[in-house]
Every structure is written in structure tokens, then in C-alpha cells.
From TrEMBL:
The protein's annotated pathway: One-carbon metabolism; tetrahydrofolate interconversion
Catalytic activity, EC: 1.5.1.5, 3.5.4.9
One function term, GO molecular function aspect: methylenetetrahydrofolate dehydrogenase (NADP+) activity
Protein species of origin: Campylobacter devanensis
InterPro entries linked to this entry: Aminoacid_DH-like_N_sf, NAD(P)-bd_dom_sf, THF_DH/CycHdrlase, THF_DH/CycHdrlase_cat_dom, THF_DH/CycHdrlase_CS, THF_DH/CycHdrlase_NAD-bd_dom
Protein's recorded name: Bifunctional protein FolD
PANTHER family the record matches: C-1-TETRAHYDROFOLATE SYNTHASE, CYTOPLASMIC, C-1-TETRAHYDROFOLATE SYNTHASE, CYTOPLASMIC-RELATED
Keyword Oxidoreductase: yes
Domain Tetrahydrofolate dehydrogenase/cyclohydrolase catalytic: start-end pairs: 4-118
Catalytically driven reaction(s): (6R)-5,10-methenyltetrahydrofolate + H2O = (6R)-10-formyltetrahydrofolate + H(+); (6R)-5,10-methylene-5,6,7,8-tetrahydrofolate + NADP(+) = (6R)-5,10-methenyltetrahydrofolate + NADPH
Pfam families hit by this protein: THF_DHG_CYH, THF_DHG_CYH_C
Protein origin, superkingdom: Bacteria
Lineage per the UniProt record: Bacteria, Pseudomonadati, Campylobacterota, Epsilonproteobacteria, Campylobacterales
GO cellular component: cytosol
Length: 283
């Protein structure tokens, strides 16, 4: 059994992004990410701070807009319009979740698809599902990078994605399908999940429940990608997998922490660089 080291691969991605960002700077281009945070959610504040820090560490520009909880939908839309029109901004990210009085779909649809580095705009969702080049959500994109770096063949494999969110499950399934896997998407209404999983050579679990994926569900030699991030009462961070019992059955597995998690920010930086190159290098 081999542990997939997301920390190491994410560092490699960041080094690559940084080298390219420095080369662009020599040409007078600073790839710049604008992050919008609405409200006081502690977890969101931590995510935004870490995105800002990583962006700056990769020699890219970082602009943060921290707005009060009382911000109206129209005020947020007006800010997005300004950022869409600002040529110095390459990527726009709205930290989710937004306060309840704001319609997230309206906000995500307002972002210029060419600056949509989170890949949530319907145009980019459509491109992904059509196999066209666009922006792909960072977590599933990071998982594909891990599979590539560890030479895990996807084509012809049976893959099960557990979870059908727009952020992880659905784009993950599309990427695996585009890469030639036979993909099953399982979710809360799926019957006999164990049987569905036992047929898989690759399992991606993105449910958000500790110990959800148990050893009896996993085929000998399977690759298990654990997307879950769960904080236990004792403060420990765990994934969705019963790791101690599942890992011995796997050929490869991602740990939590240190697996998928670090890849998400790395791919955000990579998408921001891609946007700058698309927008400022291509005629
Ligand atoms: P979500 O709550 O939007 O989706 C959870 C999915 O799990 C749903 O589609 C649901 O159908 C499915 N599900 C729930 N109960 C189930 C059951 N009994 N059987 C089968 N499926 C079931 O969550 P999300 O945003 O996709 O995130 C999932 C997990 O991944 C969370 O723990 C989240 O914190 C984590 N996450 C991690 C990263 C990262 O960077 N590593 C990024 C995004 C999300």
C-alpha cells in the first residue's frame, strides 16, 4: 500500500506556478486573484487567509474584499461587475457559503467565465461536461493531478464517486469520464452502496461523514481518494474513510490531512496563472 502524498505534489504544483509567475512578471504581467469574503464565518476566514498567503508566496497578486454580513446581493453583484471589468484581475473567487439572503447561483453566474478560477460558472460546467477547455473546480482538478503524478491509469477502470455536489462529486465524475473511466456516481439515495463500491478500482469519497467508507466496501488493490474533511469532538481532523482498516486493502490511498486538501489551493493558483496566460498572452 502506498500513501499518496498531496503535500509533496501540491508543493511541486506551486513551484511550477511560481516559476511561471516570475517569468510573466518579467513581461510586465502579474497574475492576480481577487477573493471575496462576505460575513464572519471562521472557517471561511481561515480559507481566505490561506489562499491570500499562498497566492503571494507564488509571486502572484492577491486582492481581498472582506465585506460585512449585511452586504446586499446587489452590492455584491456591483463589486463583481467592477472586478470583471478590471483588466488587472485574472481570477475572481467568491468564498462559499454566502449568507442566506444572497442567492449563490446568481452570484456565481455573474462572474466573467474567463476569470472564473473556481470553475463554478455554468459555462465552465458545460465546457467540462462537453470535454472542452475551461476552468475546472479546484478539488477534483487536484485529484486528477494526484492520479497523474502517481501514474494511476484511469482509462478503462471502474470508478465510483460517492457524493454528487457541484463542487466535488459531479465535476469529479465528469473528469474521470473524460479520462476514459466507467463512472458510477453514488449519493444519499443510492441503494446497496457497498455492492456498488466493491466493483470499483478507483473510489472517490466526498460525503463529509467520518468512517463512512469501510473496509468491506473496498476491493483489494483499489485506489481510494478521500475528499472528506471532518473535525471530531477531540479536535482531530479526519476524512470520510475508516483509514486504519481501509488502507491495508488499497494499492494507494490519500491520507487526511495531507492528501486532497493541499491540492485544492495549488490548483486555484494554477487556474489563476492559466487565466492570466489566456487573457494576456493569447491575442
Ligand atoms: P455536500 O454536503 O455538498 O455533498 C455531500 C454528498 O454526499 C451529497 O451529494 C450526498 O448525496 C452524499 N451523501 C450523503 N450521505 C450519503 C450516504 N449515506 N450515502 C451516499 N452518499 C451520501 O459536500 P461537498 O461539498 O461535496 O463536500 C464533501 C466533503 O468533502 C466534506 O467533508 C467537505 O468538507 C470536503 N471537501 C473537501 C475539500 C478539500 O479541499 N479537500 C473541498 C471540498 C469539500
Amino acid at each position: 500500500m502506498q500513501i499518496i502524498d498531496g503535500k509533496e505534489i501540491s508543493n511541486r504544483v506551486k513551484e511550477r506556478v511560481k516559476a511561471e509567475a516570475i517569468a510573466l512578471k518579467d513581461m510586465g504581467i502579474t497574475p492576480t486573484l481577487a477573493v471575496i469574503l462576505v460575513g464572519e464565518d471562521k472557517a471561511s476566514q481561515t480559507y481566505v487567509a490561506s489562499k491570500e498567503k499562498s497566492t503571494i508566496a507564488c509571486e502572484m497578486g492577491s486582492v481581498a474584499h472582506k465585506l460585512p454580513e449585511s452586504t446586499t446581493q446587489d452590492e455584491l453583484l456591483a463589486l463583481i461587475e467592477l472586478l470583471n471589468a478590471d483588466d488587472s484581475i485574472d481570477g475572481i473567487l467568491v468564498q462559499l457559503p454566502l449568507p442566506k439572503h444572497i442567492d449563490s447561483n446568481k452570484i456565481l453566474e455573474a462572474i466573467d467565465p474567463s476569470k472564473d478560477v473556481d470553475g463554478f460558472h455554468p459555462i465552465n460546467v458545460g465546457k467540462l461536461n462537453s470535454g472542452l477547455d475551461g476552468f475546472v473546480p479546484c478539488t477534483p482538478l487536484g485529484i486528477m493531478e494526484l492520479l497523474k503524478e502517481y501514474n494511476i491509469e484511469v482509462s478503462g477502470k471502474n470508478a465510483v464517486v460517492i457524493g454528487r455536489s457541484n463542487i466535488v462529486g459531479k465535476p469529479m465524475a465528469a473528469l474521470l469520464l473524460n479520462a476514459g473511466a466507467t463512472v458510477t456516481i453514488a449519493h444519499s439515495k443510492t441503494k446497496d452502496l457497498a455492492k456498488v463500491c466493491q466493483n470499483a478500482q478507483i473510489i472517490v469519497v466526498a460525503v463529509g461523514k467520518p468512517n463512512f467508507l469501510t473496509a468491506d466496501m473496498v476491493n483489494d488493490g483499489a485506489v481510494v481518494i478521500d475528499v472528506g474533511i471532518n473535525r471530531l469532538d477531540n479536535g482531530k481532523l479526519v476524512g470520510d474513510c475508516d483509514y486504519d482498516n481501509v488502507a491495508p486493502k488499497c494499492s494507494m490511498i490519500t491520507p487526511v490531512p495531507g492528501g486532497v486538501g493541499p491540492m485544492t489551493i495549488a490548483m486555484l493558483l494554477s487556474n489563476t496563472l492559466k487565466s492570466a496566460k489566456n487573457r494576456k498572452l493569447k491575442g
